[in-house]
Structure formats: structure tokens, C-alpha cells
Amino acid sequence: MIEMEVVYSRPESFTPTTTHYCPGCTHGTAHRLVAEVLDEMGIREKAIGVAPVGCSVFAYDYFNHDFVEAAHGRAPAMATGIKRVRPNNTVYTYQGDGDLASIGMAEIVHAAIRGENITVIFINNAIYGMTGGQMAPTTLPGMRTTSSPGGRDVETMGYPVRMSEMLSTIDGTSYAVRRSLHNPANVRKSKKAIRRAFEVQERGMGFAMVELLSSCPTNLKFTPQQALDFVGDQMVSYYPLGDYKVAPEVKALKV
Amino acid sequence: MALKGTIEVNHKYCKGCSLCVEACPQNVIALDMEHLTPKGYHPAMLIDEGCTGCAICAVVCPDAAITVYRESRKKKTK
Amino acid sequence: MTKELMKGNDAFAEAAVRAGVEGFFGYPITPASEFLEYMAKRMPELGRAFLQAESEIGAIHMVYGAACAGVRSLTATSGPGLSLMSEALSYIAGTEVPAVVVNVMRGGPGLGNIAPSQSDYNQMVKGGGHGDYFPIVLAPATVQEAIDHITLAFDLADKYRSLVFIAVDGNLGQMMEPAELPPMRVLPEEPPSWSVYGAKDREPNILTSIYIDPPDEEVTNIRLLRRWMEVEKNEIRYKEYELEDAEIAVISFGVAGRICSSALRTAREEGVKVGMIRPITLAPFPTEAIRELSKRVRRILVVEMNTGQMLNDVKQAVGGRVPIEFYGRIGGITPLPDEILEEIHRVNQNTEDIADGQEKVEWLERLEARIERGDQ
Ligand SMILES: Cc1ncc(C[n+]2csc(CCOP(=O)(O)OP(=O)(O)O)c2C)c(N)n1
Ligand code: SF4
Ligand code: SF4
Ligand code: SF4
Predict the structure, then answer these.
(1) Which chain C residues are within 8 Å of A89, Cβ to Cβ?
(2) I need a labelling partner for C155 at 20 to 30 A (CA). Which of A212, B5, B20, C216 fits?
(3) Candidate CATH numbers 3.40.50.920, 1.10.510.10, 3.30.40.10, 3.40.190.10; the one for domain C240-373
(4) Which atom of ligand 2 is nearest to the CA of A54?
(5) What was the ipTM of the complex prediction?
């Protein structure tokens, strides 16, 4: 007998709310993957999200679980406070690159140093989205932004920072990987990494971060597909995808 | 025989970004230029036979707007 | 319970433990470090969260997180640390979660020094962070009072979902005094209904300080202000000393107030009809009590360990009814009782009017002369 079965439907960890993201923005994709993982692991009811300041500032409107909204860059500290007093909850931050790699550099590095048992979803879109396309710490060399109108000159504006590599040097980091959202195969790999990053927390294995190369079609002045192509062509070559730190016990995890 | 599938696009969420259109290996999705969603976008829609229910469109959709169905043969119970 | 001889900072920290603090997050800074050190030992014994953060920014955002999770949480710091915390203090206020900050004040501005001071009055009372918000500020003058204020601070913080400061200085932190600690509070079994602890069988709780639509933000500001008006109605605290027949009044808070009270006793013995109001809540400020007082006395002396920060609030309350004089020691110097006594006598004999602002000019002349003479 032939029946129609549902192979994919909107995750339950989502609220029935239309996001405010621009069409084709992969913030939405990243959200969806987190929601799918929370569903699959059955941990929605104990999840506490920490939203950043950035385009995903309203992330809490889209997830059907408890959420707090941090100050710009401070999500890892806030998540630390929550996790330390509510160790049985699943606590994760969701942060952009300005948030995590610029203003919040101290907070993320020290959360990693402490091996804080939280999960970090890090959206690297090489730009400040919310404030209108200024240069981010991750903006590629030569890339034009509203605050690097002549292109990022690394001599005066510094070099793009590779967070996964950097955090991988820290003993407290259990899991630091970079994935990309630019095509279906990579979206699937991203989801697996997110799943693993949450499993790390569930098993008390410490600090886990997934860096996701992401697109900002609006500020890059691209169509959604061109923006994904930019991620796949330009960003991936500066930010190689891969596993930068997978602690042995994390490697042994069957996910 | 290849299994048949179909998709449903929820107009509340779809923003007409075309990423599913580009990603569909069967080239059976297009934007519906005749209609607008409540938010004012041309929504994605299935335009042809040949959907396999592979769910690739759903994997790339940033707005979780797509539900994917596929035929299933009742599994034999051992 | 019996009184024990206890060192200020240790006593305050133990009081916080007994008040049910479940999260302490701090960063070393003199003269508040002993608080941190005490907690480092004590909190883990009880299975409660203690963490030395990477900075005061980290520490206060951890407090913010723990507060959102619905537990009593606390940090202790000093001026430079409090400056770094301003961001989170504004967020805590805007999110309407309860939190307590102990500020062991030291000399400033800048790195300043580690000696006792009261120069963070404005920083705490007037907010310090961005936006319209109204922290409660308690200013104990004895070790016992500070211990009592820790419990009070948490009760007020919970009741009004408010930010509460406890303003002490290094004098109090280092003082050995007999004091009685409160009994150990039984920790609540259920988290507060508004907090984040997992949305099981209920709608998600969202704690945020963003109200992107101005009308929503306006309503939020109105709510904050109305709540503050409740605080002003219910929670003003101050202590009166010998005011019945007083002709002149001293107004002073914290340790300065304590020194004034001993100078006042001597002055009384010497026949001066002097009394005092010591504000215990710097915010809400005992404006009405001071206004009433100004109708009964002929002169007021404000004493602070700063350049006259509370003075402005006193002036506002008095509204020019009687002359106000000022005396302060600054930069980490604590005035001596004799110094205050001299001021009380001087003020008692002075019958001249003082133009607004002139009190500071005259004070500076006296202070500089004193420094010139080489008196402490
Ligand atoms: C203390 C502070 N400084 C600056 C800002 C302004 N601001 C808001 S979002 C943002 C950058 C966000 O960029 P990113 O973290 O890359 O996230 P995206 O918007 O690209 O997702 C800035 C600078 C702020 N809200 N707070
Ligand atoms: S501005 Fe960029 S990052 Fe922000 S929602 Fe739009 S596309 Fe996404
Ligand atoms: S990917 Fe999703 S949002 Fe974009 S057009 Fe297709 S269905 Fe609509
Ligand atoms: S399920 Fe596969 S074949 Fe069907 S529309 Fe989606 S991408 Fe195309």
C-alpha cells in the first residue's frame, strides 16, 4: 500500500512566527537547524537560549522555549551565570561575529578557558548586519563595507579573525568546528555539528562551539543565491571548513 | 519505480528568496508570480511532476516554510 | 543568637550566604576582595555557584544570567569595577530582574586609591548606566547594619524586581565589631514563575530589555517609574539622632554618619543643640524628612567623604529654607570626630546667610588651610 508520509516539517521548537530576517538570510537556516536538533534530542523543555545583539536579537520570538536577551557580546557570561545555577538546563548562546569576535571577545574566550558547559552557535557572515553593513572583525581583506568603503586594508584595519582556530588552542574547548550554510550538503553537515555540540553539553563534556559561515544578502547587495555563492567561494577559502578541536571523548560520542 | 513526492509551501513563512528554486535537483519549483504572500512576496510553488520528496528544498529554506511528503510503501513486518 | 566579633567583609559575605545567595560572581579588587575570597571558600561548601570571572563585565553579566534564572545572586566590587558594570546594571534594570551589588567604595577618580571614600554616591544613586532607571541604594554605618542590609537588599530586590546597591567603604569592610548573623534562609524549592528554568508545561518565559516599538518602551518606562514611586512610598529609611530640641542638624550617611554621631554626642555634652539625620536609603532619599527638619532647625551641616554629592539632594529637599554648610574629606581620607566637632561648633556659631555654592568655596578654604597646617 502506498501512503504519503511527511519527510520534513517545521520543527516544534519553533513558534508560529514569521522571522524578521531578510529573504534568503541564513540566520533563518541556522535557527531552523538548532530547532531541529532540540526537537530530535527532546530537550526543548529544558532549553534556555541566550540571544545576542545583532540581527538575531529577536531570536527569542522564534524559538518555543525560554530565552534571555544579553547585552552586545556578553551572551557567554550570561549563559555562564545561568548554567552555573541551573546545571540541569541546556543553555546555549547564538551570536553574530561582531557580537562574539569583536565586542564579546573576552567573554567567549574566557567561557572557553573555563570549559564552560554551554553550547555556542556562532554566525560568521563577515559583516555587521543589524547596524547596516559595517566592517566586522571577520570581514575579508579588500571587502568593501560601509565603514571600509575602499575595501578592508589589513595594514590599517587588521586581519580577519579565525575564531574556530583560535578557540581550538584553548584547553577548555572540547569542540570547535567550522561549517557553512551555503548549499544543501553543507547545511546537513552543519546540523550534524550542531547536534554534536549539544550532545557535548548534555554529557557535561564542556565548551562547544559551531561556527557557521552565513550569508547577508542585504548588506552584500547580492541576491540570496549570489550571497550563498560568495560564502561558498570567497569565505570558505579564507575560513576553511573543518574540525579544529574535537576532544577525544567527544570524538568517541556516537551521534 | 522511483517514489513520488510533493511539497507544501506555507505562505505565512515563505519570503520568495528562491533558494529552494535553485536547490531543487528536479527543477520543479518556481516562484508563483501570480500571487503574493501576506508579507508581499511571490511564494515558491511546485510547477511540475517529478518531485521525489528528497527534501533538499526544505534543507535550504531559511524560513522553514516547506513541508515535504513522500510516498511510502508499508514496511513489511517481520 | 549570640553576637560574635567579626570582620566586616567576612560578616557581609556570610550574611549573603545566609540570605540565600545561590550565585556569587566577582573579580578581585581592593577593598572588596575579601568578600570574593570568603565566597570562594563558602559557596562550594554549600554546593552553590561561585565563580571568579574574567572581569567585572563578565561578573555582572553572570549575575544578570543567574538573576534571570531566578536565584538570588550577587557581586561585590569597588568603584573601578562598578564603572565597568554600568552596562549590565542598566540591562538588569531594564529587564526587571532582582540583583544585589555591594560596592566597597574607594578613593577616585581613575585608579585613585584603595582608601575609604563615599565618592560613588552619584554613580549609584543617579544610575550610572544608560536610560531611565532607579536602583535602590542602602548605606549602612555599622557592621551589624550592613549584615541586616544584605537580607533587606535581597528582600527589596525580590519584592520590586529591582537592582539594589549596598554602599559601604573600606572602613566598614575592615572593622572588627560584635555582630549577629541572620539564620540560614531555606532556599525556595520552586523558581519564580517569571524566570527561565525550562518551558515545561508552560509558555516560554522571555527576559529582555528591548522594546523596539517606542510606545512599548514608553509603557515600560512608566511601569518602572510607577514601581519606583511605590518604593519611594514604602521604603525610605533613615535614622534620627537627638532631633527633638535640635537647632542645628547634621546630615551624613554611612561611615561619615557614624563619625558624625560620635562628634554629636560630644557636642551635646558641650551644650550644643545639635541633632542628625542619617539617610539609610540614599535612594529613595529621605527628602520629606529633611524638608520637615529644615522647618525646625536654623542651620544644616552636610558631611560626606566626597565633594558634596548628597549635598545636592539635601539642597533640593531644603529648598533654601535654611543655610546649608558642607564639610567633606576626599581622596580616601576619613574625617576624625574632632574635625567634625570643630565644624559643629563653627556652624553653631555662624549666623550668616550663605549663597548657593558659597558653602563649597568656604569649605575648600577651611580644608586647604587645614592641609596647609599639616593637621590630618
Ligand atoms: C554596546 C553596544 N555597542 C554597539 C551596539 C550597536 N550594534 C548593534 S548590533 C551590532 C553589530 C552586530 O553585528 P553581528 O554581531 O555581526 O551580527 P549580525 O547583525 O551580522 O547578525 C552593533 C555594533 C550595541 N547595541 N551595543
Ligand atoms: S541584514 Fe543581513 S544578517 Fe541581517 S537579516 Fe538581513 S540578510 Fe540577515
Ligand atoms: S526557500 Fe523557503 S522562503 Fe525561500 S522561496 Fe523557497 S520556500 Fe520560500
Ligand atoms: S522535495 Fe526535492 S524534488 Fe521535491 S521539490 Fe523539494 S527539492 Fe525538489
Answers:
(1) 69, 196-198
(2) C216
(3) 3.40.50.920
(4) 4
(5) 0.96
